[in-house]
Amino acid sequence: MRQLRLAKDAMDRDWADPDLDLDAVAAHAGYSRYHFIRAFRAAYGETPGQYLTHRRIERAEDLLRTANLTVTEICHLVGFSSVGTFSARFKAWTGVTPSEYRSKHVARGAALIPGCYAMLWAGGFRSGPGARDRNSGEAP
What is the pLDDT of residues 31-63, one digit of tens each? Predict the structure, then answer.
């Protein structure tokens, strides 16, 4: 059970990493991928893939309610690589599309955080090669 908790903790910690897949999570637990799926489902009632998808959708719900970001930006921030897959899974989980979800919650008067702040907080700004060698043009 300890190994399963370590893998679950890894999913809770690294949910936004698009490279976090079944093999990586099973490696955290020290299980083969097939044994890990069976053990995780027996312990938590859902497969590791379902758990990770639900975590990502929960984070997306939060961003859709609070951040002024596009659905595409949110899709990538929460670890999905395809907007179509994100939208389909979001609708299957919540019953509405991401855009409908946002419209429903923003209509209630929720103030949106500017997208640049949300991207900075969520780690959406990634530096390219040589970024540390550049500065903003200000005096040192």
Answer: 898 999 999 999 999 999 899 899 999 999 988
User: Strands (DSSP E) along the chain, which ranges?
Assistant: 67-68, 113-114
Question: 0.90 exceeded by the pTM?
Answer: no
- The residues with which 67 forms a beta bridge, in sequence order, are 113
Cα 84 from Cα 61, distance rounded (Å): 16
Instruction: At 71, list the tokens.
Output: 């659905």
3-state DSSP helix/strand/coil % of the chain, to nearest 5: 65, 5, 35
The answer to whether residues 122 and 16 touch, using CB atoms and an 8 Å cutoff, is yes
Contact criterion met (CB below 8 Å) for 102 and 65: yes
What is the distance, to the nearest Å, from the Cα of residue 47 to the centroid of all Cα atoms in its chain?
Answer: 17
Task: Quote the radius of gyration of the chain (alpha carbons, Å).
Answer: 18
